[in-house]
DNA sequence: AGTTAACTAAACACTC
DNA sequence: GGAGTGTTTAGTTAAC
């Protein structure tokens, strides 16, 4: 809001990204935050009224007689209000400090990236008021549109490099609730370069994506008009741009940190993979998230775990051992059930991408079914179709685990291709290729999670702030007709905003879906509809379309490694049973 | 305890 | 005939 101590959506984003919070913590945090913001809004309104009253009285005094008493009274009131405002700032500062103490927010004194921290220290309410007006004046109308999304559009960069000002540190309080982080260059002429394209970063789904705006623009032209009229080069736009710059800066810093962290983790795991205490861990799984949470929050013994103390699931989200011990890493037993299929959630590129290096180098069996892996291999291909040999190659390329025992897993691949109706063999010019029938894939029996509300809630939250949603994941979710959780289901409006932001990000992917029963499934090769060589007899499952359940488990891919049985052929390992 | 799904293994047919 | 591919069956295991 008007003061910097309010947690901005950026800070919230940072918290969500950097600090893994439990849903309960988030709930409390957000509630506190909202209460503060509400208070500030009320104070702001009050302050405005006071000022208006003061000006009115001054005018009256100029025109009519003098009423020094009343003037004095108003001045006194304003002074009191200013004190109140300062008090509010202090409260917010305490709030932030409290968050820091709780480990929920990391604010380093020398860190310039937290945009609003130094703001308004020594700034008097009048200045704040002015800046506030500058930044927010144009938002009043926009708020009436029920604008409530929190786009995290950070794909553009701001070219503004003018000297920093106080304005640059002001965060629009409504932007705080909305959380828009879009960057827009104040240079109008830059728009002309984009006018030819309707994929303007500030325009999507018929609405203006300028922070705090979301005005409905029927077409691109009206959007451009709106952009030029409502978001012209002025102090407000510049200020918002500066804010966005800092946001981007912060996120880049965060990204760099996380990359570094990932690198360190990879290095650590590779180096120590032969050491007893190594705990190699795929990175895309909830368990890893919770692991990092516990590692950052609490006891240092959370990581690594020794093989002699098999790791219990850190959260109830995971149902199996959440940490791969060294033992399990080298003596991975047959995995009878893998979570990606267990909940009918197809493996996503996000999963593969995030763990790519891990699985490429570590001989760890990926916690996905053959069917999921085959499907992923096929969907990753440009033509959405692969020959058997190409599927083999994908397996060996992506997973060190599949560089051994070729006969076994290749047989399994062939077996799966033949067995599952979702894999369709298509005669191609260059021979036979395999494609995926998404409809059939979705028809595979989803298994239900026992109805533990807190568990589901936990998973939802985990999903909201832990799961990177890249296009493939979104597509996967969309393919499952997954309705993203609603604001209500999040139990918190701000989290709901996050969810809605994600939802909005997903809209593109969702549009072409939700029609599973039709023949328009994504990823389906046009060819397969032409030349299905045969029809596999897989019993149709009456229980279909359990989207919501699929959703909550999307964030829940968990390694499911057997520790007690060896999957390899080596007699040595077999002896270890 | 029964059912289901995933996995492994293997046999067999077919093509090149 | 051998290798690769594709289909099918059987047995085991784990989850539900």
UniProtKB/TrEMBL annotation:
Compositionally biased intervals (Basic and acidic residues): 186-198
User: Residue ranges of the Fork-head domain?
Assistant: 365-438
PROSITE patterns registered for this protein in UniProt: FORK_HEAD_2, FORK_HEAD_3
Low complexity: compositionally biased ranges: 304-318
Q: Where does the chain cross the membrane? A: none
Q: Which of UniProt's keywords are assigned here?
A: DNA-binding, Metal-binding, Nucleus, Repressor, Transcription, Transcription regulation, Zinc, Zinc-finger
Question: What start and end residues bound the annotated signal peptide?
Answer: none
Q: What is this protein called?
A: Forkhead box protein P1 isoform X14
Q: Which organism is it from?
A: Equus przewalskii (Przewalski's horse)
* Recorded name of the encoding gene: FOXP1
């Amino acid at each position: 809001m008007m003061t910097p101590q309010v947690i901005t959506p950026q800070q919230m984003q940072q918290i969500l990204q950097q600090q893994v919070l439990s849903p309960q913590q988030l709930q409390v945090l957000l509630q506190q935050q909202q209460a503060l913001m509400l208070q500030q809004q009320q104070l702001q309104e009050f302050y405005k009224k006071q000022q208006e009253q003061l000006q009115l009285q001054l005018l009256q005094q100029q025109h009519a007689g003098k009423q020094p008493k009343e003037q004095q009274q108003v001045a006194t009131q304003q002074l009191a209000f200013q004190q109140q405002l300062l008090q509010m700032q202090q409260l917010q500062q305490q709030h932030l400090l409290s968050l820091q103490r709780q480990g929920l927010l990391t604010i380093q004194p020398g860190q310039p990236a937290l945009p609003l921290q130094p703001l308004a220290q020594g700034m008097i309410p009048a200045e704040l008021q002015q800046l506030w007006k500058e930044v927010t004046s144009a938002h009043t109308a926009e708020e009436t549109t029920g604008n409530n999304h929190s786009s995290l559009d950070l794909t553009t960069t701001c070219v503004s490099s003018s000297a920093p000002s106080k304005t640059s540190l002001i965060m629009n309080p409504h932007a705080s609730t909305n959380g828009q982080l879009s960057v827009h260059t104040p240079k109008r002429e830059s728009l002309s370069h984009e006018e030819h394209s309707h994929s303007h970063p500030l325009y999507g789904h018929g609405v203006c994506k300028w922070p705090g705006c979301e005005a409905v623009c029927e077409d691109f032209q009206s959007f451009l008009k709106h952009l030029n009229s409502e978001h012209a080069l002025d102090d407000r736009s510049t200020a918002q741009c500066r804010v966005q710059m800092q946001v981007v800066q912060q996120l880049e810093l965060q990204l760099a940190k996380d990359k570094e962290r990932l690198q360190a983790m990879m290095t650590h795991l590779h180096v120590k993979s032969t050491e007893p205490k190594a705990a190699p861990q795929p990175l895309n799984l909830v368990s890893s998230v919770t692991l990092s949470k516990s590692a950052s929050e609490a006891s240092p013994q959370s990581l690594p775990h020794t093989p002699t103390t098999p790791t219990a699931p850190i959260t109830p989200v995971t149902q199996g051992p959440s940490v791969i011990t060294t033992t399990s890493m080298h003596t991975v037993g047959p995995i009878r059930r893998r979570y990606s299929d267990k909940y009918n959630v197809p493996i996503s590129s996000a999963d593969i991408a995030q763990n790519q290096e891990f699985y490429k180098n570590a001989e760890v069996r990926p916690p996905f079914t053959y069917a999921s892996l085959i499907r992923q291999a096929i969907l990753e291909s440009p033509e959405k179709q692969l020959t058997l040999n190409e599927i083999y190659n994908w397996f060996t390329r992506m997973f060190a685990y599949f560089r051994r025992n070729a006969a076994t897993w290749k047989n399994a691949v062939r077996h799966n291709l033949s067995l599952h109706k979702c894999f369709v063999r298509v005669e191609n010019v260059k021979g036979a290729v395999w494609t995926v029938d998404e409809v059939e894939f979705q028809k595979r029996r989803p298994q239900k999670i026992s109805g533990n509300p807190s568990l589901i809630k936990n998973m939802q939250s985990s999903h909201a702030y832990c799961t990177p949603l890249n296009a493939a994941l979104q597509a996967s979710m969309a393919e499952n007709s997954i309705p993203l959780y609603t604001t209500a289901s999040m139990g918190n409006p701000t989290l709901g905003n996050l969810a809605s932001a994600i939802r909005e990000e997903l809209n593109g992917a969702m549009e072409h879906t939700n029609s599973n029963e039709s023949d328009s499934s994504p990823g389906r090769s046009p060819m397969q509809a032409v030349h299905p060589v045969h029809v596999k007899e897989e019993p149709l499952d009456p229980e279909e379309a359990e989207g919501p359940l699929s959703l909550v488990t999307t964030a829940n891919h968990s390694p499911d490694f057997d520790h007690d049985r060896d999957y390899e052929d080596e007699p040595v390992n077999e002896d270890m049973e």
